[in-house]
Amino acid sequence: SGEERVVKHLKFTRWPDHGTPPSSAQLLRFLHCMRAAHAQGPLIVHCSAGIGRTGVLICTDVILGLIERDLSINVSDIVKEMRLQRYGMVQTKEQYLFCYKVWLDALQSILLRHGNRWQPENPSDSQPIPVNHDYFPQHWSPLPKEEIISIYF
């Protein structure tokens, strides 16, 4: 058809199969780069089996999207919904707990960045957390060149 497309390939090389990244900050950095590279069109996420690391990445991206829209977050429900679409998403207990860690670290980053020491008086307090959804640390550098490949066709 003569139409030209750019395909950007991002690869997270520091994430072991059946495991979790060394830190939630590394995954948040990767998600930041992924979102910056994904301006429009489809986004494809895949690991070796397409369920463990893929499930964690998608789950944490959904969590960040819910934070951005000030919506409630239930990691269990997110994973259940993903498993309806692909059996086995988020393979291990460690990966499941890591989704919670990324969520908590993103919220902590928001609160610390804005000097906000907000804490509810009781866990059922429905007061919203005042944020501007800036959970990506400003000092992050771009991904190393070996982790981003642009393909033109």
From TrEMBL:
Record keywords, A-Z: Nucleus
UniProt GO molecular function: protein tyrosine phosphatase activity
Annotated compartments: Nucleus
Organism domain of life: Eukaryota
InterPro entries, A to Z: NonRcpt_TyrProt_Phosphatase, Prot-tyrosine_phosphatase-like, PTP_cat, Tyr_Pase_AS, Tyr_Pase_cat, Tyr_Pase_dom
Domain Tyrosine specific protein phosphatases: 25-97
One GO cellular component term noted in the UniProt record for this chain: nucleus
Domain called Tyrosine-protein phosphatase: residue spans: 1-106
Protein name: Uncharacterized protein
Organism: Conger conger
